[in-house]
Amino acid sequence: MEETSWIAELFANLFVRGLLVGLIVALAFWVRSIIKVRVLHADLRKLREHLQTKFEIESAENERRKEEMNQLRQERDNLRNMIQVLNQKPNKQELRQAQVYQKAAEIMFEKSPGFAPVWQITLREAEEEMRNAEKGIIPFFKRITSSTPVATHSSEQKMQSHGKHRLELDDPANL
Q1: Are 115 and 108 in contact (CB under 8 A)?
Q2: At a CB cut-off of 8 Å and minimum separation 6, what does 170 contact?
Q3: Which CA distances in Å does 95 have to 7, 72, 85, 101, 150?
Q4: Which segments show compositional bias classed as Polar residues (predicted)?
Q5: pLDDT tens digits for 117-154?
Q6: Cα(58)–Cα(47) distance, rounded to whole angstroms?
Q7: For residue 104, what are the CA distances in angstroms to 100, 108, 109, 130?
């Protein structure tokens, strides 16, 4: 009986009662926090899986885009090459016009004996001018002459007196 009285005395003490109530409340909060931690870990695991799935999808999409960009670049280069080839091919009208010119040159060779040397010289000059135009020399000179002031009357007289049309650049200091 003394044992029960000791326990009864212990529970009769207000401090011990308060301590027991506090421990029970602390135990309840501890169990609740353990449950919350497990829920949070489960949510964290789900979020990590979701993030991993998202990265995999984005990675696959990026790879697909890179392949598509490479394919488009290759198609662009192929189209550029095709355009260059097509630009070099003469069309039917150009071929017909070249044949007409060739026939006219043959007729002129037959009809006028002095035509051949003049024609050869003129042809060489035209070929040289076309080569210069392709190199960009002639357009450069045209830009220079169009950006300079209009030629003075004396320079026009010089050109007419020589009987040749030359490209002359006017000196802005002489104006």
Answers
A1: yes
A2: 148, 149, 151, 152, 155
A3: 123, 35, 16, 10, 40
A4: 148-160
A5: 777 888 788 888 877 777 766 665 665 565 544 444 44
A6: 16
A7: 6, 6, 9, 21
